[in-house]
Amino acid sequence: MSQNDPVVRLPLPTEGPLDPPAEWERLRARCPVATVELPSGDTGALLTRYDHVKALLSDPRFSRPLPGDDSARVAPEDGGGVATRNDTALSVAFKGAEHQRWRRHVGRYFTAKRMTALRPGMTRTAEALVAEMVAGGAPADLKAALGFPLPVSVICDLLGAPVRDRDRFSYWSDAFLNIDRYTRAETEAAEAEFSAYMTELIAAKRAAPGEDLISTLIEESRAEGEGLTDPELRDTGMSLLVAGHETTANMIGKMVAMLLADRTRWERLVADPSLVRTAVDEVLRADANLGGFGVRRFLTEDFEFDGTVVPTGTTVFCGLSAANRDERTFADAGELDLGRSPNPHLTFGAGPHSCLGQALARTELQVVLDVLLRTLPSLELAVPVAELERLAGLAVGGLREVPVRW
Which parts form a coiled-coil structure per UniProt (predicted)? Predict the structure, then answer.
C-alpha cells in the first residue's frame, strides 16, 4: 500500500459466475495490502493474504464501522443498502465489554448442540420442499424451490416470526444488502418498516413468550436484570433475520452449482455421503462469490502487516474469499477437495466478531446436501455453468437462479 501501487477498483471482474477474480493471485503475491476505490468513490485498503486477514479479524480492538466513524462508504451517498452505510441503526457491532455481553446472551442459543437438536425438523422441511419441487417438474429453480424457503422457515422458527411474512423479510433484506438497486430514501423506508415490525414482535413476545430466541432473551433479562435492552433486541432480531436467511439462501444455491459444475464431484458424494461435512466446509472455503468487498474493519489506531503500516482512520476490507485461496495456507487452493481436513477457512470470520450463526449455517447446508444426494442422486444443472447469472450488487453474493433437472 504505497503511492506507487495502482488503485484497485472494487468489485473485481471475474471470467465466469463461479470463478474467482484473476487479480486476487497477483495482489496476494505483489500487493497484499492494496489501495482500493469503492463504487462510492471513497478509498480503503484491501487484504488478500490469509495471515493478514486473520490477524486483523482476530484483533479485539477493531470492529466493523459504527455510526459516527468517518469510514469509507461502499455505495454512493444517494444509494446503497443499509449494510453499506455507516449511519444505520441496524448494528450490533459493539466493542469490548459491550460486545462480550451481547455475544454471551445471544451465543447461548447458537451452540452446535442446539443446532443438532434442530436438525430433524430441518430435514423434514427440506424433504417436503424437494418433494414439492419434483412434483412441479423439471427444470426447476433450486434456489427458489429450496434455497430460499428453507432458511426463511428455520430463522423464523428461531426468532418466533411468522413465516407468512417471508416476502417482506426478503424485500427488507435485499434493501439492506444491495449496493445499487435502491435509493437511499427506499432503504431508509425499508429500515423504518423493519424496525417497527421487530418492535411490535418484541412487544408480542413480552406479552406471550414462546420458546424462540427473542422470548428467551426477554426472559433472561427479567431473571438476571442485565439482559439486552429493547433497542438491542430489535437490532439483534433484524440482523439475525437478514443474515440468517439471505446469506444461507444464496449459499445453498452456490453450493449446489459448484458441486454440479463438475459432476464427478456430485457422483463422488452420492457414492460416499460421509463426505458431506467436509464437502460443505470446502464449498464455503472455495466460494469466490461473497459479494466482492469482504468484511470491513475500521482502524482506530495504526496496524502493521509485515512491515506495511496502515494508518488510523483507514477502512480495511478483509477479502475472505481471496484469503481462503491463499496457497500459503491451503495446498492446491484453487481445487475443490471434498475431503479437505483440516480446513481453517475464514468464511465465517475469526476472533471475537466471528459469525455467531456459523453452526446454524453449516447444519442447514449439510441437511440440504444430504437430502438432495439421497432423494435426487441424478440431479444436474439444466444450463451450462457459463449461463448462470450472478446477482448484481448484492453485498453477500449469489446467483439469480440455479436451474436444475433430474
Answer: none
